Amino acid sequence: MSNLVFEPYAAEQRWQMPAPLPGQAWQELLAQYLAALTRACTGAGPCIIGHLKALALFPAGGYLRASAISAQHPPTVDGRAPDGLQALDLTLNLLVYGLPHTALERIATEEAATLAAQRGGQVDTHTATHHHPPGEHPATGGR
Amino acid sequence: MRLLLVTGFLGSGKTTLILALTHAARAAGRRVAILVNEVGEVGIDNQLMRQLELDVWELTSGCICCTLSADLVTTLHKLDATYGSDLVIVEPSGAADPANLQRALPYYRGRPLESIRWATVVDPLRLPMLLEVLTPLITAGIAQADVLVISKADLATPEELARAQEAVRAINPRAPVHCLSLRNGLAPELVAELVP
Fold first, then answer.
1. What are phi and psi of A75, to 5 degrees?
2. Could you report the per-residue pLDDT of B151-183, keeping only the tens digit for each?
3. What's the pTM?
4. Which among B191, B186, B122, B114 is positioned nearest to B151, based on CA atoms?
């Protein structure tokens, strides 16, 4: 496992729904998204999920944060979204050993699009620029 | 100025512990600075801490490359000269080798540090797997800790918690071990050990 690639993936996403949602619905949607990401990562090949994180900040204060560490454990969500939001701006970090940046980008984009489409919505994903050549961050240690 | 290093693998609960410790220290009248090093192009923890109106400095944004050590010392010098903090909490990336921090600290030339404490957060849900596949990284963090915090006690089974305690004590028998759910608040004795 010492040769697992480690290429962190980050993105900014805008989730746009056809109608305003209660805050609780956004919380559930975020949990479903992270759960879908853990399943997709696990299904994409041998990997170790380090940490999948998503954060939305709200101008009036407050936040909505979700975190997942494996497909075997449900994501945790804390904070809360205000009621009546039709769009949510999200920062996403996928820290996964074993999957290249390109695979993580595809997973993040496809899972978001699928989940949003089920509710008549859509997601714009903007991948953050990666400053280092692919493969520069190998897994630390291992046998 | 006291220094607290909070290490642990990705997703172990470092940020949650730091938020709780900072809350406790500020309630006791301490001036707290938090230094965060996140792997990834866009930091999340620092955004959250800023939203919560905490005083956060980001170290070498986006990378775990070797400049972290130099950036840590430079930032500590700036804090010493301008901020007047009682307590500095450092959160290195969970993907970084914590030994980098130890190697950097002797280069700090500011006011003498009153204390340097090292807490390592351990995720009992994944510890056996991580010890198997990322052995040096996980072992180093546990071995060098002054205090070990086994998190997610509300999610782990009694067997997982017992296995985690046994594993960390085998690696580091001298550090006290605290098992807790970080979401349920901190025990006063843990706060006293980490932010005396």
1. -60, 155
2. 999 999 999 999 999 999 999 999 999 999 988
3. 0.89
4. B122
